[in-house]
Design a protein that fits this description.
The structure holds two protein chains of two kinds.
Chain A lengths: L2 E5 L2 E3 L5 E8 L8 E6 L5 E7 L6 E3 L7 E6 L4 E6 L8 E7 L3 E2 L3 E5 L2
Parallel strand pairs in A: 2-11
Antiparallel strand pairs in A: 1-3, 3-8, 4-5, 4-9, 5-6, 7-8, 9-10, 9-11
Chain B lengths: L8 E4 L5 E6 L9 E5 L6 E4 L13 E6 L2 E6 L8 E8 L7 E3 L3 E5 L1
Classes of the chains: A mainly beta, B mainly beta.
Chain lengths: ~110, ~110
Amino acid sequence: QVQLVQSGGGVVQPGGSLRLSCAASGFTFSSYAIHWVRQAPGKGLEWVAVISNNGSRKYHADSVKGRFTISRDNSKSTLFLQLNSVRAEDTAVYYCVLFPVYWGQGTLVTVSS
Amino acid sequence: SYELTQPPSVSVSPGQTAKITCSADALSEKYVYWYQQKSGQAPVLVIYEDTERPSGIPERISGSSSGTMATLTISGAQVEDEADYYCYSTDSTGNHRGIFGGGTKLTVL
C-alpha cells in the first residue's frame, strides 16, 4: 500500500533553515509528481510546491518562492523541502501529498526564537 | 491572483441536505477535488474530478460542477459529517500549481 512517511520537522529560529523529508513506498515513485501542502495552526490548507516525476520542473507558491526549494531523489524514493530564511508565518504542519489521494502524516515546523 | 472562494461556514440539522460551494473564474476549465478534514487529522479525499466518489466514501456525499461553481452536497447529513471541507484545483496558469479554497466549516446539530 502507498505510504508517505515524513521526518525533519521541529523548532527553528527566524531566519534559519530546515529540511523536511518524505520517504515513499508502495508505488513507483519516479512516475509521479509530488506536492507539499501546509496548514498553519487553526488555518486552512495552503499549497506550497510541486515537483515533476523526474525533477525537471518545479513550481512554488509565491509565499515561499526564493526561500523554499522542493527536490527529490528517485533512487531513494524520497521527496525533500528545503526551508531557508524562515519566518513566523511559516509555522505550520507540512504534508507531502501524492495527489489526489495520499497524504503523509504531517510534520510540524515551528518558527520561534 | 487566482482564488477559490468558499463560504466560511454552513450549518444544517441532522438529516438535512448540506451544500458547500466553491467558485472561481476559470473553474469550468479545471477539475475540482473536495477534501474532508476532521480535527487533528490529515485531509481525506471525498470527491475527485468534480463528481467522482472514491471507494469507501458514503453515497450521501456527491459533487457537481457548472460554469464557475462547483458544489459539494451531503444529502441526509449526519453528525459524523461535521468537519472542515476544502475544494482544490490547479491555478489558471496551466503549470500544475495547486490552489485550495479557504475551507468551509460544516456544523451538523
